[in-house]
Structure formats: C-alpha cells, structure tokens
Amino acid sequence: MESEKTLDLSKDRNKEFVENMFSSIQAKTSAYCFQCMTCTNGCPVVLNYQPNPREELDLLPHQIMYSVRLGLKDLVLESRMLWACTECYMCTEYCPQGIQVCDVIYELKNLAVKERKDLIPRGLRIFANTLLDQGRTAEIMDWEREDLELPDLSGAGDEVLQELLRKLGLPELIETKS
C-alpha cells in the first residue's frame, strides 16, 4: 500500500462496504468515533512501533474507524494494523464513546480472509497449515514433560482437531491461488 496516496472519495468510497459494516452492531459503533485517538494512544502494538507507527502499520486504530465510516474498504483491508492487532481489547476499554474497536477489527479480518486471501500474513498461513497437518503447532517434548512430572501425551485428539478444522473450512480459507 502506498503511504502517501491521495484518495478520491468519489472513486475510492465503497458504499456497499459501509452498509455491510454498519449492519453489524459492533461496527455501527464506529459512527460515534470523534477521532480523540484514545484507542491509538492506548494500543500496545502502536506503542511498540514508536516513534513512527504509521510507517509500519499503515493505519492506526482511530484511522481504521474513520476509514470504515468513509467506506475506504481497500485502504482498511490492506492496513498492516489489521493483522498486527493482538486483540487485547485495550482500545475498546479506553474508548470514551464505547466503540467496539477490537470487534470491528475482528470483523475486518474476517472480511479480508473471505474476500482478499492474499492479505493473510505468511506466519498465519504457516500456523494454520501446521494445525491442519499435525493437529498442533508445537512438538510435544517428552523430556520437558518428564522433568515437570507430567503424564505423557498420546496425541489422540490431534486427528479430531484436524477433522474439525477441515469441516469448518480452514483449508479453503487459507489456500492461495497460484
């Protein structure tokens, strides 16, 4: 995404995106945002990228809320902040207007996965593929379990989890078209 792109609201605004987002109770709360930046100032992800978080994250939480209202779908979905968000809910807790910032970000991630699979970060794809392939994301270290006097793990639930993930459609969600 270009960081200094000039937007033309007559072309870049997606009215259907606004209508769809505002049909959600959580996303509708973004209409009350008056850009006080409390969500951004309380965000640990933003704080991690000081002194120039916008360079790394494209949009900051308050800018995402405003962009949703404006209907700037591509700008919002292509924002790296969407995937960097840790879902800690600090933004939502701090918001004086009661905007469900974190829930809006969840909805935007779901939309990105549904409509723009190319935006799913590589690390998330690796994580999901490992779950599908092995039923877990880390190897069982028997010696660690032994040292802690924990019982052996059989891995018996791994296949059940893999099957559940397949039934839920995870392979289709993370596949990329080559």
Task: Report on the architecture of this protein.
The mean pLDDT is 86. 24% of the residues are buried. This protein has 178 residues and is mainly alpha-helical. The longest helix has 15 residues, at 101-115. It folds into 2 domains: 11-119, Fumarate Reductase Iron-sulfur Protein, Chain B, domain 2; 122-174, no CATH class. Helix 12 (122-134) crosses helix 14 (158-167). It is built from 15 helices and no strands. Helix content is 58%, strand content 0%.
Shape: globular
> What is the string of helix and strand elements?
HHHHHHHHHHHHHHH
Radius of gyration: 20 Å
CATH fold descriptor of the largest domain: Fumarate Reductase Iron-sulfur Protein, Chain B, domain 2
User: Strand pairing plus helix content: what structural class?
Assistant: mainly alpha
> Separation of termini?
21 Å
Concise account of the structure shown:
The chain has helices spanning 9-12, 15-22, 25-28, 38-41, 44-48, 53-57, 61-70, 73-77, 81-84, 90-94, 101-115, 122-134, 142-147, 158-167, 170-174. The protein has 178 residues and is an all-alpha fold. The protein folds into two domains: 11-119, Alpha-helical ferredoxin (Fumarate Reductase Iron-sulfur Protein, Chain B, domain 2), CATH 1.10.1060.10; 122-174, no CATH class.
